[in-house]
Task: structure prediction
Amino acid sequence: MITLTAAAALTLSACGGDSSKGKDNDKIAGADTGSEKSASPTAREEAVAGRPKIELPSDVKDEYEDWKVGDDVKDAILADTAHRIDATNDAILRGDSSAPGLPFYYRDKALTGAVEWVQEYKKANLSFTGTTRYYDPKVTLSGSTTAAVVYCADESKGFNKNRKTGKVDRTPSDESPYVLYNTRLEKSEKGVWQTSVLISKRGDKACAV
Result:
């Protein structure tokens, strides 16, 4: 979602938690009508202690299309991926790089990148509004505690908003609104699937619709 260009040629893409300045169109973060929208928490999710409560404002929506695949483990991984996206957006909207959702759903380099990403948004005096659609998720397991998740995002209905004035920038962007995300997750001792690596590529043909 949300490509912005600030005075210093700063380009950000919000909703995935994507934080790098970009190199060969690949960005490593440190960053979401099918039959499935955001699903209610499963018993497994509720059993994990300490999950931060995250409620996005009414003008911001993350929609998850076909976000269940019918396998308990893979569905748990996708659920924590969605929680990580929501947590990132919550931190950006509040301008709080110390938001508890970040270290809960991120780790390692991805956590560092996520914190920097939130700080960049705050420095640019921006938040955002609108809807981001996350779709075509693919989960690959590697053992019992490591997985890869690849998914697409459609950011065409997301817009930057000035944090102070509340003015929404609906100027059409020259960049593609479609982003391919490639992530690595590791299961924590608490049973949370934390994102340790996140790479994104804007305009990837795999996400074209």
Observations:
- Confidence is low (pLDDT under 50) at residues 1-43.
- The helical segments are 43-47, 72-94, 101-105, 108-123.
